[in-house]
Structure formats: C-alpha cells, structure tokens
Amino acid sequence: MTQLFISDLHLHESRPDLTHAFLHFLEHDAVQAETLYILGDFFDVWLGDDHDTRFNRQVMDALANLSVKKFLMHGNRDFLIGEEFCRATGAELLDDPCVVDLYGRPALLMHGDSLCTRDEEYMAVRQVLRDGNFQREFLQKSIDERAAFATDARGKSKEHTRDTADDIMDVTPSEVAKTMQHHQVDLLIHGHTHRPDVHKISLGDGTPATRIVLGDWDSRGWVLRVSPHELALEDFRIES
Q: Model-level pTM?
C-alpha cells in the first residue's frame, strides 16, 4: 500500500516536457498507488472550468483514466478549479488545510502559501484572490479578459519574487508550529515554496514534529511516497 503526494507541477502547454513527465508518472507510478494527492499549483494557471482547450482536456482525460482515489487542493495558481473539473476527472477537492489519516497517523495537508505570513504583500493579494465574491465576478469575465489579468498577475509576481528576500517568502516557523498545534498533528505535508526537504522541528510545547516540503516540477520532479512503514521524498529527472 502506498499513498503519493505531489504539488507545484505548474502544467502549461508551453512546457510539454512537464506534461509528458506527468503522463508517464500516472501510467507507471500512480496507477500502482492506493491514493494520489495533488497539493496545489497543478496547473501554472487555471482560468476556470469553462476554459476548454486541447491541452486542458488532455490533462483532465489522463487524470480521469487513473482509477485510484484522487484528491486535489487549490494552489495560488489554480484556485479556480471547481466542481466541473472534479466531476470530469473523478478527483475530490480538499479544503486547505485538512487532516487525513496516513495508516493511523494524522497528517496535516496544505498548499503552504498561507504559512508565508512574513510576506505581507502576498498575503494581502491572497486574501483578495481567495474571496468568493471576487472569484464569482472574475468568472463572469471573458476568457480573454481573464487571461490578460493572469498574465499581468504573473508579471507582478515575478517582480515581487525578484525583489523580496528569500526568508520572507518562505514559511514562518512560528506559524507552522501554531498551525500544527491547532490541528493536533506532528506531521505536516505542503508545497508552494519550491524548497523540497524533510524538516525535523519542535513545536511550541517541545513536541517533536516533521514538516515535509514537496518540490516543484522543473528539471526534476518530486513525489512523496507514504507506506505503513516509510515516508520517502524522492526526485527524478524530467527529460527535456
């Protein structure tokens, strides 16, 4: 029995290497698993479930053909994935955060961006983008209008990333501890930061805990394999 966790694939039609790697992963790895969790930023941009393109259909069809249990969480790039996408792919949308049972051990799953509280500018933008009223109004716009907005937002995001210190953009340790204690867990799995690692940490009350950061897919892909006896964060080469 194995449960797989991935995040931050940032699938986009301009990166066929990532699409090929994901399709290969489904056919040779995920098909043998018990469960697949995708913890946000599955797509580099998702303009809405009504954005019907050949590329989007290709990815959705491949996910639909995977017969194992599939769970999906919103990221900061694909927070407009909705019920239609889930019906078409057979994936269940998870709340962020949520707690799942991993062979008797509770684990907290998050995309991870809400933990970056020192990045006040990003947190302010996040609050707007995740607002239900904003999203409903945004989805009333044409696809072209949404695409233009997304392009502008990505440009501003790149500028912000370039001008902001690395430690500010990473998770806030005290927020990690507070969140884990609130959910009464000693295991956290998240993505977003593109800094794959397994961190042994101590919570505020001295409880030892583990924070596993999933990596983004670029020149290498990342997957966390969880079995009853092991948690293994693995990487693999993505062929260009």
A: 0.96
